[in-house]
């Protein structure tokens, strides 16, 4: 396993852990500790115990009000009719008032219940969405590199959505169904033990039916969700790669590939619907047979004079209601199946512990000494290996004095980016410490850490919002003047001013097209504004043209003068401004010295430099 | 005007019915089954209404007469009715199960096919998440709409109508009492429908905004981590999700209100009918059986009445989903390229002096179709001739439009005016299929698809390209690392497979561009992610390829420029200078500035 990527290492993500067929990340099944799903659900509901109780109480009362209708019918036929004939208006009045109260109460309680349960549901969802979001943000970069963005997005969208469906519709259905079963069974038993017993006996085949359905539907649902996931992946991949799709005429081939996946989903989808159809037939048959049996026996007894007519009428009315919700029980099972699967995936995500945790008791950076705004960086006995064992950086010591500009060069897979990520604390070292002015990075709170170290990477991501917002991300309290002067210092002011709304152009709206090189300039302005003590540039100038690169270098020697800087680049032009060059190979620093000295020597850097000079000829 | 997440057209006459009617072409193929299913459902529902009549017959007949045989007969009728009802319900679902899954699938396939053929400019505007939600949740909503609300709005209306008629026939005073709440319930539903529609759309759009924040916070995680901004990101997320919660609660309040009304009013009417009925039974004007039958009919109508609220809500959401679906389907696809060739293009093809051969830009201008109308074109009066077999480097400042210019050749974007010709043929007159066979492209952002390495590379070649072509292309791109992958060239890559580094991806994208030995080659900064040694090796191998093809190469670096025979300088939207590297260094200060590295290196 380890050998797979180790034999074919390359530059950008050397710290990417090797992935093999057994890697849980490949199959979108993170290990979920046993019981974690239940624990998650409990912890979501725990803070609102009282409100959940209130909601259930409202539903209890509502069902009581709704289910009392047939009782009043029985009373009206058996008591109020004879009483009325005796000119006793009392029972009739009682029926009238009773029905009025029940009608008003069931409406009002229904209203109150829907509101109360919506509040609970929305608060649970708010909590869960927030947890997933915060947790995903807290997880370290190496996790994000392995858990693809698509999965993380579907965790916080479609998976949360399926829980919403369960809460909004399913749970209410379930409680209603269970409550009405209990109520009606109890009422029937109370009205007449025999009739009630028949009704209760019919629960047995119903239960077996539900169990059978659950098992069969569960299988179909798993197949269906796998099928739709494949459809989604194909869809997203096509849309994100639309340019090569067009340029290489993949449309017809893609249509064919998509048709296969889509029809697999169509088939399982149809299977799921047919499974539901079978369940409906079965449950209806049981229910209607039970109704016929109860009516037969009841009518027989009424005819025989051992049962009051009103009781039979009430029993029949209740029976209709008893079996009405069994279709809905099927729907509940549907939403339960998909929500359970989603919740398990979410629980698996939340069970991941950040490999780069925030300190429990953060300390502050010491006050800066001397006139240098930069700080000293020390790698003290640092070693870095994958969790699976492959060693990327063997143990090494390195000191970067405050204010020094250090270039790191070396071929693909040499460990340059890993070194940078350790310094930026995207990863923590396996052994040893990374110190900033003597303070271990692991002991610094995030705001303190980012005043100390900022890293600009090759992929210059822009967030929705204006260009100014994107630059101000480096320091949210910056004024517009400060934002503009950062852009000017980096040579980005001209193109920004030329955009339709200048700094206020929305980067996602019309006219906001920004080229790869321009994005890197914006990313740089962001870093300038952040004004860190240590700046790391990891291939941050790869898409810039030479004037752009010069502007960056100028900014580093003026605005950022005195900062400690670590520059990773394969363009050796960037190296020219460095005070010191580190050459890395196979995770080790093999050369270390001022550029002029290394060029004059016979080492690898001299080689590289010669090759680069030749490429310019 | 469609923006990223399309805002609802809040025209007051926006009619849910009219929107939903647009689904007809997709439903048409299964209309027979749908109609049958609806008819079956109507029959089944009405059967349920017959059951109380049997009860009445039993109560007033055999039960009152103490006739056991009659009781048996009645129960048998009930059982038969019950069995038929159950089978009919099953039949209804069986009739539509496969067809509706088919409708959903065909709508999805149509959406996918359309999206693949919409202009690239369309994709620039739409986040893929927005498109995805249309292909998944919106289509599922539509399938559910066709399965339930559509049928049951009809079925329930018929059931209610039949039930009311039955009740009126049995006893018209009681029937009228039951009918009293109809008017207020209908009025409430109408008011509800209108309000719910706007809140529902708002909620759907807010979910879209929330998804955008999630998507960006995942894609931009390195920036967020790098600047320690995860708290402010979380704050933004919290605010949005709170807003969404507010909207959802507003939705819930509307739903709660309609439920309250729909539950209370009919229940009051039933209560009134019960009291009135009791009095009349006591007076002997009404049989007990009739009252029982009447009330159980009324109660049997409860579900059809209660369900109207959520059926309407589902229909509203389905209407919104339909709107969202057609926002994409209504976008015009790329025109199909069979525009009549302009006469001069064809004439020149016969010229014979060779001036028409190669890749030629004639007075080309380009402005993004969604750019404000008054803005200056991005490219203007571009004239450039790349001779057959020649390679031309394209150099220009950051953001000068180099990538855009290269996108015009395979017609990823259409020229606003002017023409581009390949060997004298206007590309606008060529079928796209043919054009894109002639032109191969390597993009700045190398995208690999979920497939084997070999599949990814060979998609640049004609059918039937084999091992030898693959090896040659991998050799050119210095992609020997492929052989060290776990399964060699068969190793799965892309989102679903092994993730490769940027440099590796870039080399595979380059191999894909050269594998088909295209007549015309467009390379957009093809070597930016390679280290110096690899870059030198790729350049050496590329020279041979370039010798036999006509190429346009976007370049930032002197080393890349030197791959080309000549250089064109793009500045201010025009080609301002063409010549060899050395000529331009001498004659163009701008070029010298862009290539400043050279100057200094030679100092």
Strand order of the largest sheet of chain B: 6-9-10-3-11-12
CATH class of the largest domain in chain B: Mainly Alpha
Number of helices of chain B: 24
Cα separation of the termini of chain A: 43 Å
> Largest interface, with Cβ-Cβ < 8 Å?
A-B, 191 and 190 residues
Residue runs with pLDDT of under 50 for 5 or more positions of chain B: 1-13, 340-352, 598-603
What is the subunit arrangement here? heterodimer
| CATH topology description of the largest domain in chain A | ABC transporter transmembrane region fold
Mind telling me the CATH superfamily name of the largest domain in chain B?
Answer: ABC transporter type 1, transmembrane domain
How many independent structural domains of chain A? 2
Give the biggest sheet of chain B.
6 strands, mixed
Number of strands of chain B: 12
Q: Whole-Å distance between the termini of chain B? A: 55 Å
Helix content of chain A: 55-70%
Keywords:
heterodimer; A: alpha/beta; ABC transporter transmembrane region fold; 2 domains; six-stranded mixed beta sheet; 10 strands; B: 603 residues; Rossmann fold; 12 strands; 63% helix; 10% strand; elongated; disordered C terminus; ABC-type oligopeptide transporter activity (chain B); membrane (chain B); AAA+_ATPase (chain B); ABC_transporter-like_CS (chain B); ATP binding (chain B)
Task: Tell me briefly what this model is.
By secondary structure, chain A is an alpha/beta fold. Chain A has helices at 2-6, 36-45, 49-85, 90-138, 141-146, 149-191, 193-201, 203-240, 242-247, 251-304, 309-323, 326-350, 416-423, 446-452, 467-472, 480-490, 493-497, 516-530, 546-557, 572-575, 595-600, 604-616, and strands at residues 377-385, 391-400, 405-410, 431-436, 439-440, 453-456, 534-538, 564-568, 580-585, 588-593. In chain A, the strands form two sheets. Chain A has a six-stranded mixed sheet, sandwiched between helices.
């Amino acid at each position: 396993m380890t050998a797979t990527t180790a034999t074919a290492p390359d530059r950008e993500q050397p710290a990417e852990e090797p992935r093999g067929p057994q890697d849980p990340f490949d199959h979108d099944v993170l290990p979920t500790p046993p019981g974690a799903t239940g624990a998650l659900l409990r912890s979501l509901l725990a803070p609102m115990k009282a409100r959940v109780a209130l909601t259930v109480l409202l539903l209890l009362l509502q069902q009581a009000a709704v289910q009392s209708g047939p009782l009043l019918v029985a009373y009206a036929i058996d008591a109020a009719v004879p009483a009325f004939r005796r000119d006793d208006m009392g029972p009739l009045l009682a029926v009238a008032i009773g029905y009025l109260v029940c009608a008003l109460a069931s409406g009002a309680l229904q209203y109150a219940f829907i509101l109360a349960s919506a509040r609970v549901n929305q608060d649970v969802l708010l909590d869960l969405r927030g947890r997933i979001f915060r947790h995903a943000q807290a997880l370290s970069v190496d996790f994000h590199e392995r858990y693809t963005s698509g999965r993380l997005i579907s965790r916080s969208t479609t998976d949360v959505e399926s829980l919403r469906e369960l809460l909004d519709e399913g749970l209410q259905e379930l409680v209603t169904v269970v409550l009405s079963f209990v109520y009606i069974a109890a009422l029937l038993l109370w009205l007449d033990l025999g009739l009630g017993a028949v009704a209760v006996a019919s629960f047995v085949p119903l239960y077996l039916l539900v169990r059978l359905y659950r098992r069969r539907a569960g299988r179909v649902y798993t197949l269906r969700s796998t099928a739709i996931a494949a459809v989604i992946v194909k869809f997203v991949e096509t849309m994100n790669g639309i340019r090569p799709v067009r340029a290489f005429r993949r449309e017809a081939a893609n249509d064919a590939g998509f048709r296969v996946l889509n029809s697999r989903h169509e088939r399982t989808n149809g299977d799921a619907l047919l499974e539901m159809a079978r369940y409906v037939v079965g449950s209806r048959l049981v229910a209607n047979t039970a109704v016929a049996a109860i009516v037969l026996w009841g009518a027989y007894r009424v005819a025989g004079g051992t049962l009051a007519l009103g009781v039979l009428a009430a029993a029949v009315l209740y029976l209709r209601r008893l079996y009405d919700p069994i279709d809905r029980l099927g729907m509940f099972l549907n939403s339960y199946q998909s929500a359970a699967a989603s919740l398990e995936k979410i629980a698996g995500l939340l069970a991941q512990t950040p490999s780069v945790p925030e300190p429990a008791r953060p300390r502050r950076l010491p006050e800066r000494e001397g006139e240098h705004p930069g700080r000293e960086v020390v790698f003290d006995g640092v070693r870095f290996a994958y969790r699976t064992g492959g060693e990327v950086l063997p143990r090494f010591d390195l000191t970067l004095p405050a204010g020094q500009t250090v270039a790191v060069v070396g071929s693909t897979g040499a460990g340059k980016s890993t070194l940078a990520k350790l310094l930026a604390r995207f990863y923590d070292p396996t052994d040893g410490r990374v110190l900033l002015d003597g303070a271990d990075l692991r002991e610094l709170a995030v705001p303190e850490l980012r005043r100390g170290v900022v890293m600009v990477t090759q992929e210059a991501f822009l967030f929705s919002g204006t260009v100014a917002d994107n630059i101000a991300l480096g320091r949210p309290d910056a004024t517009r003047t400060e934002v503009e002067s950062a852009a000017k210092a980096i040579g980005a002011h001209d193109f920004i001013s030329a955009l339709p709304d200048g700094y206020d152009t929305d980067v996602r709206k019309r006219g906001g097209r920004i080229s790869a090189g321009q994005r890197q300039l914006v990313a740089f302005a962001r870093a300038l504004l952040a004004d860190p003590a240590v700046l790391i540039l990891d291939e941050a100038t790869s898409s810039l043209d030479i004037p752009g690169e010069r502007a960056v270098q100028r900014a580093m020697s003026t605005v950022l003068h005195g900062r400690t800087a670590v520059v990773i680049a394969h363009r050796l032009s960037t190296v020219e401004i460095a005070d010191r060059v580190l050459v890395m190979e196979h995770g080790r620093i093999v050369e270390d010295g001022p550029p002029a000295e290394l060029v004059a020597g016979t080492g690898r850097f001299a080689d590289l430099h010669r090759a680069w000079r030749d490429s310019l000829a | 005007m469609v923006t990223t997440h399309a805002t609802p057209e809040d025209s007051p006459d926006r009619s849910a019915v009219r929107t939903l009617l647009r689904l007809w072409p997709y439903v048409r193929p299964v209309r027979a089954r749908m109609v049958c299913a609806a008819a079956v459902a109507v029959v089944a529902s009405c059967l349920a209404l017959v059951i109380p009549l049997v009860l009445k017959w039993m109560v007033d007949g055999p039960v009152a007469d103490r006739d056991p045989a009659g009781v048996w007969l009645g129960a048998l009728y009930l059982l038969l009715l019950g069995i038929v009802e159950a089978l009919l319900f099953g039949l209804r679902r069986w009739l539509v199960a496969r067809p509706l899954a088919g409708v959903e699938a065909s709508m999805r396939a149509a959406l996918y096919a359309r999206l693949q053929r919409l202009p690239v400019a369309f994709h620039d505007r739409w986040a893929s998440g927005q498109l995805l939600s249309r292909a998944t949740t919106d289509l599922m909503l539509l399938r559910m709409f066709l399965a339930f609300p559509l049928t049951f709005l009809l079925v329930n209306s018929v059931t209610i109508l039949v039930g009311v008629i039955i009740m009126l026939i049995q006893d018209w005073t009681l029937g009228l009492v039951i009918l009293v709440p109809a008017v207020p319930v209908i009025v409430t539903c109408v008011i509800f429908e209108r309000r719910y529609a706007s809140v529902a759309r708002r909620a759907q759009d807010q979910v879209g905004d929330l998804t955008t924040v999630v998507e960006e916070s995942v894609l931009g995680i390195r920036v967020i981590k790098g600047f320690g901004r995860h708290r402010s990101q979380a704050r933004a997320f919290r605010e949005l999700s709170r807003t969404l919660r507010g909207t959802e609660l507003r939705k819930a309040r509307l739903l709660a209100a309609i439920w309250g009304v729909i539950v209370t009013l009919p229940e009051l009417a039933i209560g009134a009918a019960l009291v009135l009925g009791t009095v009349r039974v006591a007076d002997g004007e009404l049989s007990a059986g009739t009252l029982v039958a009447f009330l159980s009919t009324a109660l049997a109508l409860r579900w059809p009445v209660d369900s109207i609220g959520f059926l309407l809500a589902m229909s509203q959401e389905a209407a919104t989903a339909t709107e969202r679906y057609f926002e994409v389907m209504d976008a015009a696809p790329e025109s199909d390229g069979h525009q009549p060739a302009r006469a001069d293009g064809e004439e020149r093809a016969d010229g014979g002096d060779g001036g028409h051969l190669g890749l030629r830009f004639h007075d080309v201008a380009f402005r993004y179709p969604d750019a404000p109308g008054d803005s200056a074109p991005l490219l203007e009066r571009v004239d450039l001739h790349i001779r057959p077999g020649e390679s031309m480097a394209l150099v220009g400042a950051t953001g000068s439009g180099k990538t855009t210019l290269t996108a015009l050749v395979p017609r990823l974007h259409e020229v606003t005016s002017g023409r581009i010709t390949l060997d004298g043929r206007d590309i606008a007159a060529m079928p796209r299929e043919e054009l894109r066979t002639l032109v191969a492209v390597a993009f700045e952002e190398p995208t690999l698809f979920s497939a084997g390495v070999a599949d990814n590379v060979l998609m640049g070649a004609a059918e039937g390209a084999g091992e030898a072509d693959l090896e040659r292309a991998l050799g050119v791109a210095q992609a020997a690392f492929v052989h060290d992958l776990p399964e060699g060239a068969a190793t799965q890559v892309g989102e679903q497979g092994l993730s490769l580094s940027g440099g590796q991806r870039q080399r595979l994208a380059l191999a894909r561009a050269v594998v088909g030995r295209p007549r015309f080659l467009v390379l957009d900064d093809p070597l930016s992610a390679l280290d110096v040694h690899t870059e030198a090796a790729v350049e050496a191998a590329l020279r041979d390829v370039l010798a036999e093809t006509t190429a346009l190469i976007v370049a930032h670096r002197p080393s890349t420029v030197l791959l080309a025979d000549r250089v064109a300088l793009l500045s201010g939207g025009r080609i301002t200078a063409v010549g060899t590297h050395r000529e331009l260094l001498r004659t163009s200060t701008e070029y010298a500035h862009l290539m400043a590295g050279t100057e200094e290196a030679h100092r």
